[in-house]
Predict the 3D structure of the following.
Amino acid sequence: MAHGRLPMFSNEITLLRYSSGCSQRFLDVLCSCTQPEYTTWQYAPPKGRSLSNNSMSATGIAVLADALGINKGLIWLNLDGAEVEDVGIYRLTVAIKKNSTLQNLSLEDCYIDYNGGFAVANAVTGNVSLKTLNLNNNAVQDAGATAFGAALSQNSVLEALHLAFNEIQGTGGMALLEGLTRNKSLTLLDLGFNNIGDEGATAIASALERNTTLKNLCLMSNHITDTAACPLADVLLRNCTLVYLRLADNKIGIKGAMAFAAALKLNATLQELHLQDNHIPDLGTHAFADIPSHNGTLRILNLIGNDVSEATVIAFAKERQEGKNTRLDVRYSSAAGVPR
């Protein structure tokens, strides 16, 4: 990409990609962006600048962190794939505490361990601008999740937190309980592909009893069984906020499926429920057959990878014809022999 003078546009910072590494040119530009009139660069949407998939030296990270500490215009920073290591994370978190304009930070696949996770969580606690934080595919583990639980108790700005693929187990899931209970800003929490199990999922269900802001919850592939599925389903009877619930690739069976089916007949908020690849037998999936005539809100019910008999599919079709929810997209198992 050419490094000549970039065009300026009023009040808009858009994507600026440097695929060949963190050039000094970029760092000089970032350091100079201390006034709004010098921060409007347009290259391509979405908004922000990306250093994705770059190998950055310790010196580069240090300069970037120092620049971020004084920058007053950058709103989106993507460091996905950069091996920032512990020292780099500490420098960045110090800068995040000082920065008051950055809104979106992505640190996916950056080799961040529990020490780095603790540092990032600590920075989030005092930050006043960050709305989206992506830490997918790191290793913050239970210690990092515990730190984020504490951070969420005090933070009132963060709206989306991505912690998928982070080796978080039950203790970490439980630690998020207090944070979710007190937090009033988070609308999306992604804990997919961890191992929080029934212990962590039950704690999150308890938090949803009092949480009034979370709309999107992903707990897919977390070794959740009926033991936690039932409390998660039960909370849908009282929670009036949750819109998207993803529980794919767990170990939910007949009891959990029946609990969700019963809850959906009374819930008027949830729009998507993903239960694919849970190996639910037909007796469990059949419990959802009359949902179209009872629930006018649900838009997607994903049962792919479960046992859905032809009789259950026919029952779904009949209910959709006669029921009030004609927009419900029921996604069946391929074993049913019926198009999705």
Q: What stands out?
A: The chain is about 35% helix and 10% strand. The radius of gyration is 23 Å. The first helix runs from residue 24 to 32. The mean pLDDT is 83.
